[in-house]
Design a protein that fits this description.
Helix 3 packs antiparallel against helix 7 (201-209) and helix 4 crosses helix 5 (142-155). This protein has 261 residues and is of the alpha/beta class. The longest helix is centred in the last third of the chain and has 19 residues, at 218-236. It has one domain: 3-Layer(aba) Sandwich (Rossmann fold). It contains 8 helices and 7 strands; from the N terminus they run βααβαβαβααββααβ. It has helices spanning 33-37, 39-47, 70-87, 107-120, 142-155, 166-170, 201-209, 218-236; strands at 23-28, 51-58, 92-98, 124-128, 180-184, 193-196, 244-251. Strands 3-2-1-4-5-7-6 form a 7-stranded mixed β-sheet, sandwiched between helices. Keywords: Zinc. Pfam families: PIG-L. It comes from Paeniglutamicibacter antarcticus. This is PIG-L family deacetylase.
């Protein structure tokens, strides 16, 4: 995967040549969040043999444009997300079951995040960004920020602290030092890493098309996504017509990391 260059004087956000990725756990607030923000990168990972799993924190039960019951909406959105995930090589989708619009970064949610991370022990955890984006506030749905905040709080210190949620360690889910946190939907000033998804952009669109309950105008949605990815490809300098996804990459446990500092 291509990567963009860092400004002078900054630590490189991520080097695929040095940081080998074998397992990735991805969090989204709603079904379709990961497909908008990161499914091209996921498709590139799975094509390279990386194991990727999804966790969707809410059921998306407040989304849609028709008069279905809440139970019908939940069933539809779960099915749409499973189908979308399969198209980018993801066979396991965990549904946390929180209510759409009511997600909070509380200990009930954080404990589930810690359990999933400790169980999979991934090289990368990918989640939504916890900061509000004032340039495009639609990215900053309260559930989006709660997803990012819950995952970020869980990663440090709880995932690596054996005294956090001790019942998890007692059940065999031992503390684990996560190497990398990748956040999508970030404010532009936070974006420090871009992935060239030109070769898998068709897979990204195919995944997004599965969420038909959410997109009354599919051509307009696809044009918007293409334009966004073209802008990121240009920022990264990947070449004419290149398409990219952008992330705020955080080294959680780098070689020079000292706990508590």
């Amino acid at each position: 995967m291509g990567m963009s260059h860092q400004p002078a004087g900054q630590r490189p956000a991520f080097s695929p040549e040095l940081a080998r990725v074998k397992r990735v756990l991805c969090f989204g607030a709603h079904p379709d969040d990961l497909d908008f923000g990161a499914s091209g990168t996921v498709a590139a990972w799975t094509a390279a043999g990386v194991q990727v799993e999804y966790c969707i924190m809410t059921d998306g039960d407040a989304g849609g444009f028709d008069a279905r019951t809440e139970a019908e909406i939940i069933t539809t959105r779960h099915a749409e997300q499973r189908a979308a995930a399969a198209l980018v090589g993801v066979g396991t989708v965990h549904f946390m079951g929180e209510s759409d619009g009511f997600l909070e970064a509380n200990h009930k949610v954080m404990k589930q995040v810690v359990a999933l991370i400790r169980a999979m022990r991934p090289d990368v955890v990918l989640a939504m960004h916890p900061e509000r984006n004032w340039e495009r506030i639609q990215r900053s749905h309260p559930d989006h920020m709660a997803c990012g905040e819950a995952v970020t709080r869980a990663i440090y210190p709880a995932v690596e602290n054996p005294f956090s949620y001790p019942e998890l360690a007692e059940a065999g889910l031992e503390a684990y030092k996560l190497p990398w946190l990748w956040l999508y939907g970030a404010p532009a000033a936070r974006e420090n890493h871009r992935v060239d998804i030109t070769s898998v952009f068709g897979d990204k669109l195919a995944a997004l098309r599965q969420h038909l309950s959410q997109h009354p105008d599919v051509p307009a949605m696809e044009a918007f996504v293409r334009r966004q990815c073209q802008e990121q490809g240009a920022i990264a300098g990947f070449g004419d017509g290149a398409l990219a996804e952008a992330f705020h990459v955080v080294a959680v446990n780098a070689q020079d990391t000292i706990a508590g500092f």
